[in-house]
Amino acid sequence: MHNTKSVCPECKKIIEATVFENNGRVLMGKECPEHGKFEEVYWSDANLYRKFQKYQHEGTGVSNPLTSGDAGCPLSCGLCPSHKTTTLLANIDVTNRCNLNCPICFANAKTRGFIYEPSFQQIEDMLKILREEKPTPCAAIQFSGGEPTVRDDLPAMIQKAKELGFVQIQIATNGVRIAKDIAFARKLKNAGLHTIYLSFDGVKEETYQKIRNFNALPIKKKAIDNCREAGIQSIVLVPTLVKGENDDQLAEIIRFATDKLDVVKGINFQPVAFTGRIDRQSREKQRFTIPDLIKGLADQTYGEVPEKAWYPIPFVVPISRFIEGIQGKYLPEFTVHPHCGAATYLFVEKDRIIPITDFLDVEGFIELLDNATKDLNGTKTRNLINLARVVREIPKLVDQEKAPKSINVTKMLINIIKEGEKEVASQFHRKSLFVGAMHFQDLYNFDLERVCRCGIHYATPDGRIIPFCSYNTFHRDEVEGQFLKPYNLNAK
Among 104-108, 268-272, 322-326, 451-455, which is the least confidently predicted range? Predict the structure, then answer.
């Protein structure tokens, strides 16, 4: 299907690779002169691969890169001039300490010995670098780790991010402290926290026994209850999917979320990446790709969440570009690689799941905006004429009979493209359940074409901004090694 560059899983040298179709699947093949040939499943369904490929959009990256790129991808990450997507979501690892010891931890979080823990000042400096990105300052930040809640000054970090203008502030957590300490949850909310990304691997005790080494389900449920009581109204469940372990619970996870729509606003499925502690030899039996999720969920919901409901992340780029053209200002553009992630929206009415594709011609909507953007020329009159034409066409794309009665979909879509305001989009999210998937890469399926389009980045204390997959496969040990310090035995 295409040639690219990858890495040898043994020595990490950059080598040529081919992505090709075989028996309905898409595979990656590569050969290292020293360590031989490797073949890995890239995407498990070739038809879905081609559908997603249609929606690739080229981004322009940042106009103020922080590294030269002379060492080549992925060694020059920082961001370099070759990177094509701005920072859509930034991660800052505030510690590598953790109050759990999960065998599938991709960060290989440590609980003893030496620790990586940036100072508050270093974290503030990283936040400022992200806000200085041009032409679009990073607007979304996630404090992660390790386990970020082991730091008592986490609320102060959240408050600083709010002061610096981040419009979406998140933490990625296992929920242990929040389940035990509702006062801390209130501090997070009062500081300005918007969303909690809660690791959530399923609804069965045995799943947690295998994946987390103990039954963590009661902790997850208590954390959700405490968030509700503390006033935190946006939780995203984050299941790490491992074939043969929890891929039989996809529909049950969806139902768990739809029963708690007052606080659970999304699910971000993450097929396991073979980094950190995971035994590389397990990959053949445990590899799980985005098409496996899409097909598995369709089967387990008996078609209630069909394959056709899913689209790649860059599918929405025409929305941003149309609003940019109307408003005359830069907006974040989700120009990530089309095979990095997938998403859909589900509505619930009378215990029935209604995918957005059941009542909205989403492809027609995107095509309408894409064509209208080409007709924008910067003059106010011309832009208003094009906006009016789009507004007239939108009702034709909505099937009101099939649409949920709890939301005026036509009005919401019109408001989004006319105003593009965060609050208007938030209203949409409050009425629906976002279901997404991000498949982070490992050394076996590593594709440099994907890396240079990555939109999820890590900010580091040495002043760099590094794409997620290259950070976790190449740069984590290097970065943490620069800032290690003795472990404080009295730290919580």
Answer: 104-108
CA distance 300 to 200: 18
For residues 237 and 268, the answer to whether their CB atoms sit within 8 Å is yes
- pLDDT at site 428: 65
Q: What digits encode the pLDDT tens for the residues 398-423?
A: 999 999 988 888 888 888 887 665 54
From its phi and psi, is residue 348 left (phi > 0), alpha (psi between -120 and 50) or beta?
beta
Confidence of residue 205 (pLDDT cuts 50, 70, 90): very high
- pLDDT at position 272: 82
Which token pair is 490? 């009295």
Helix (H) or strand (E) holding 236: strand 235-238
Tokens 């997404």 — which residue? 436
Identify the bridge partners of residue 47 per DSSP, sorted by sequence position.
none
**Tokens describing residue 336:** 């990530």
For 120, the enclosing helix (H) or strand (E) is: helix 120-131
pLDDT higher at 255 or 331: 255
Rounded distance, CA 318 to CA 136, Å? 17
Distances (CA, A) of 470 to 77, 124, 293, 457, 459: 8, 23, 24, 9, 13
Which amino acid, residue 103?
Answer: P
Q: Are 176 and 196 in contact (CB under 8 A)?
A: no
DSSP state, 474? I
> How open is the CA angle 58-66-117, to the nearest 5 degrees?
110
Query: Residue 351 burial (CB < 10 Å; 0-12/13-18/19+)?
Result: exposed
304: three-class secondary structure by DSSP: coil
Please tell us whether the domain made up of 5-360+416-485 is placed in CATH 3.20.20.70.
yes
Report pTM. 0.92
Rounded CA separation 198/154 (Å): 16
Q: What is the pLDDT of residue 248?
A: 96
